[in-house]
Write a structure and sequence with these properties.
By secondary structure, the protein is of the alpha/beta class. 27% of the residues lie in helices and 19% in strands. The protein contains seven helices and twelve strands. The strands form three sheets. It has a seven-stranded mixed sheet, with helices on one face. Strand 3, helix 2 and strand 4 form a beta-alpha-beta unit. Helix 2 packs parallel to helix 7 and helix 6 packs across helix 7. It is globular.
């Protein structure tokens, strides 16, 4: 199945075959935010009196990415096609994939590719078990089978990818990718940006720094990606307390729990065209139930 998909794209892309042709049964508990399903109003949702003009421009309407799976005949929108970039365990990939799978045909998004710099990582193994195409990127001395940037971009276009999601991907994405997908790349970071972000802040290093600083709160941030580490516009955040006797591992677990919720909710909003941009460049998430309320 996946080999046919790659061959049809004509990009010459190398791929990693699935570990097991029979995908494991999915645990759909992560679908609390549901793609294309009615949800309870988010806890952070507040009524907004539009302090600035907002432009009804989801990422696709703000320039759009290389793919285009927007309105078809009769104005019916097809599922947005997602490529997820991972370097480690892939728990956020799993949460997003399970949320989309739980909604079936009603889902507004579909994970069609996993891009990784570490073919043996947990995220890549999960993708292969689930029948998701795995692409090794970038090409390097340690990974000569990886694809170069131009070939990756061609593959994403051929796969009609609408949005790129970074989920524990530790490398800086190339500028060519950012330019090809304006306002269409999201990242999840385990702190309340702009604090404790930037090059070198990843994994337990973030949580060690938070505890050492004496900060009373930490959390997770979903942001749009630009050409630097963790400097793109913030889209959504979740806050957790930092306890007096916290270890980095305990804080990491508390933050990760919130990551799984906030990232699914943000990606669902992206796929459902519920992101609007204020005239000062700040992105807002419009709730499903009230166009004048923002999460």
């Amino acid at each position: 199945m996946e080999a046919a998909a790659v061959a049809s794209c004509g990009s010459g892309l190398r791929y990693l075959p699935p570990l097991d042709p029979t995908p494991r049964r999915q645990n759909h508990r992560a679908a609390v935010a549901g793609f294309g399903t009615k949800r309870r109003r988010p806890r952070a949702a507040v009524a907004c009196r539009r302090p600035h003009r907002v432009h009804a421009a989801a990422a696709r309407g703000s320039g759009g990415g290389a793919g285009d799976s927007s309105s078809g005949s009769g104005g019916v929108r097809s599922k947005k096609r997602l490529a997820v970039f991972v370097s480690s365990g892939g728990s956020n990939l799993r949460s997003i994939h399970e949320a989309t799978a739980a909604c079936g045909k009603a889902s507004s998004g579909d994970v069609v590719a996993l891009v990784t710099d570490k073919p043996g990582c947990g995220g890549a193994e999960y993708a292969r078990r689930s029948g998701i195409l795995v692409v090794l990127f970038p090409r390097s001395k340690s990974a000569p089978e990886g694809v170069p940037t131009a070939q990756l971009l061609n593959a994403l276009r051929d796969l009609r990818v609408d949005f790129v999601l970074l989920a524990g991907y530790l490398k800086l994405v190339p500028g060519e990718l950012v330019q090809a997908y304006p306002r269409s790349i999201l990242n999840i970071h385990p702190s309340l940006l702009p604090a404790f972000g930037g090059k070198g802040y990843y994994g337990l290093k973030v949580h060690k720094a938070v505890i050492a600083s004496g900060a009373r709160y930490s959390g997770a941030t979903v942001h749009f990606v630009d050409e630097q580490f963790d400097t793109g516009r913030t889209l959504a955040q979740r806050v957790v307390p930092v306890l007096a006797d916290d270890t980095p591992e305990q804080l990491a677990a508390r933050v990760l729990h919130e990551e799984h919720h906030v990232y699914v909710e943000a990606v669902a909003a992206l796929c459902e065209d519920r992101i609007v941009w204020r005239e000062d460049g700040v992105p807002l998430i419009r709730t499903q139930t009230n166009p004048d309320a923002y999460a």
